[in-house]
Every structure is written in C-alpha cells, then in structure tokens.
Amino acid sequence: MWAQAKSLLLGLLQIIHNAITSIGIGTNFAWGLAIIALTLLVRLAMHPLTQKQMVSMQKMQKLQPMLNVLQEKYKDDKDELQRQTMELYKENKINPMSGCLPLLIQLPIFILLYGVLYDLTKTEAFTNVTFLGVNLGGSVLTTVAEALKLVDESGVRIPDEQLGFVMVFLSSFTNLSLLFSNISIWIFNFILLLLIAYLTWLQQHLTSGNNPQMAMMNWFMPLFLTFICFGLPGGVLLYWGVSSLMGIVHQLRVSRKTSEEMKTKPTLYKEKPKTK
After folding, report:
1. pLDDT tens-digit profile of 70-94?
2. Is pTM beyond 0.70 here?
3. Of 98, 109, 174, 243, which has the fewest beta carbons less than 10 angstroms from its beta carbon?
4. How many CB atoms neighbour CB 187 within 10 A?
C-alpha cells in the first residue's frame, strides 16, 4: 500500500513536470517548478487540517496566562483544576486535541512526499539537474565533496553514501582554496540550507511566542534540523523550504485573525487570585 501511494505521488509529479515542459520550459528548470507545484497542491489539500491545528495552537497560546492562574489557584485540587480548565476551553471553543490530531494525520503524508522526492533525486532523471543554481539531486555534503574532488586511497571517487559530515567538514578546512575555487558547485545548496534554518527558527518563534520555557527549543530545533539537512538532496530541501514559507504565511494570517477573535472573549480571571 505504501509503495502504491509513492508510485501515485511520483506519477503526479511526473505529470506536472511533463505539463510544464510542454509549454516550452527546459526540463531541468521544470523539475524545480514541478516540486514547488506539488508542494502547493499538498499544502492546499491539507489546508483544512492545518487551519484547525494553527487556530487551536494560537488560542491555547493566548489562554496560557489564564491557565497559569488556574493552576496556581487549584494546585491542591486536581479535580477542580481539570473542571475549570475544561470550562475555560469550552468557553473559548477550544478542543485541546485538535492541535495534535492534524499533526498525526499529516505526518504520513509528509513522510510519503519526502520518500518520493528522495527516490527521484537518486535517479538518472535528476543527474546534474539544477534549479536556480540548486543541485536537486545533490546534498550540501555531496556538492562540497564534489567541489573538493574527494577520493579514497586508491584514487576512486568516494560514493555519496559513504560521505560523512566530519569527513567533509575536515576536508573543507584543509582544502579551502579548492573549495572556494569551485564555490558555484555547492553555494546555492548551502544558501537554501541556511534559508531553511531561518524559516525553522521563525516558525518556532511564532509558535512559542514569548514563552520562556520554549527559549531553548527555539534554538535547538533549527540547529538540529540544519544538521539533518546537510545530507538531504536539494529537491527535498526545495520542498521543505517552500512548505515552511507557506506555513509561516499561513501562521501569520491565523495569528492576526485569532488575536482579534480572542479580544472579544470574556476572561475568567482579570487579576491573579490572592493567596490566603
């Protein structure tokens, strides 16, 4: 079933690519446009779920100060705390599970799309295919290794699957002149990687707001995902970057709308309860 779903999605991507090339756009550039178009289609198809998730997250964020008040007032009465919390959710028309369920439904779709793009970037169709300078079949690691002309002891080019972050990183420092003389091979993939890191940080910042408990996560997630992205093909990074950008635009729109709606909602406690 999983293989059939991947084949279906791959077929859709190829149909989009063929449609783009039929209007006179070169096949290399068309692959990049096809990935962007497929990303847009997936985001549009999942919009109802994403909308529900983002609205729930934004409202939960707005209610956090009030939840903190309830937790302090009823810290010795767990049953009453639960009842008051559910009453607060009900009054503001929030389903606490609505923020998690869409994520669980979306995750298989994202993994499926990633698998399709990853497999495609390893085929001959993606050999030396670039889009706005980004090598769609190569990762930051493989493009840097290509620029450095890394070979093993016998002089044979090191296969991509044997390249490691530490190996490429150390080789870069010992061959800086060669690295920068071939900068056009890897720089665009690297710029896209940095863009994704920034978009990830921005998404984390918008999601957590000014919550000090999330401060460490705001920096950890972008750094962690950036490390993972070093080995991802440019085609996958292109999907990730476009999807993240659309997510941020959507999140900003939902945040503004939710802020206006929450202003009209009554608050249960305008002041922090006094302790006896």
Report:
1. 777 777 777 777 777 777 777 766 6
2. yes
3. 174
4. 17
